[in-house]
Design brief:
Length: about 260
């Protein structure tokens, strides 16, 4: 059984244009999925439907065997969490401790257990020394770590990163990517929405959205060899992948692909 199953989902903000059109998608537990697409392709809209922030007009979303609807949304938000591009949009507490606690308070986690979880997950993201600091005084990478800790503290099995690295400096971005790798190795299901094809190379599978539709969905190695899928979706392959795709010697080509796609 899939961890996430999206069945014929459509959504529109207005009558003139559909933001999502008949989306079908299966994500297995422990997968790392990268979602690519040009601006307005439906990436963030899809993410918001997966966490119940938007309700599809047609179709259904099933998470870990449970249909996402008004009755189940509260329970399912324990299992799937989202980190937005700007973590400031997620901060509501006066301190880091308050922010990590916020989601658990909504889930009515007992106080003693909440305290234990705050300490445990703050350590997991290396923010245990900042629990009494104001979020506004943290760096971008530290804010993202706090946002991740808040989701982990809610015991989320699925983590969605919606352009979560786009505002970070290269050092902080690399640090966060390494941490996401470690979470995936621990068994967390990762969904990363990104404009950066180099980030997408880390994923097990890539989903390309184009004008609200699934244009392509395949294993990373297979899809990155499909230049046409990227060109027609207005996406550009990294130079190394363009070079690899043009090589005529299949043995050298395969070796270069293997090297480029090493995680």
């Amino acid at each position: 059984m899939s961890m996430i199953s999206v069945k014929d989902v459509s959504f529109s903000y207005n009558e003139k244009k559909q933001s999502l059109k008949n989306i079908y998608l299966e994500i297995e537990k422990g997968d790392w999925i990268a979602i690519l697409g040009h601006n307005g392709s439906g990436k963030s809209t899809l993410a918001k439907t997966l966490v119940g922030l938007l309700e599809p007009q047609t179709g259904e979303i099933v998470i870990d065997g449970i249909v996402l609807n008004e009755d189940s949304a509260f329970e399912l938000r324990k299992r799937i969490g989202i980190v937005f591009q700007n973590p400031d949009n997620q901060f509501v507490g006066v301190t880091v401790r308050d922010d990590i606690a916020f989601g658990m308070e909504n889930l009515c986690v007992p106080r003693e257990e909440m305290i234990d979880r705050i300490d445990f997950y703050a350590k997991k993201v290396d923010m245990q020394d900042y629990l009494d600091k104001q979020p506004s005084n943290l760096s971008g990478g530290q804010k993202q770590r706090v946002a991740i800790a808040g989701i982990l503290a809610m015991r989320s099995d699925v983590l969605i990163f919606d352009e979560a690295t786009s505002m970070l400096d290269p050092f902080t971005k690399n640090d966060l990517i390494e941490y996401i790798k470690s979470l995936n190795k621990e068994g967390f299901t990762i969904i990363m929405i990104t404009h950066d094809v180099n980030e997408a190379l880390l994923a097990d599978k890539i989903l390309i959205l184009n004008q609200g539709e699934v244009y392509a969905y395949d294993d990373t190695v297979n899809l990155l060899k499909n230049k046409e899928a990227f060109e027609k979706s207005h996406l550009e392959l990294p130079l190394a992948l363009q070079v690899a795709s043009e090589l005529k010697d299949d043995m050298i080509k395969d070796k270069l692909w293997e090297y480029i796609l090493m995680k």
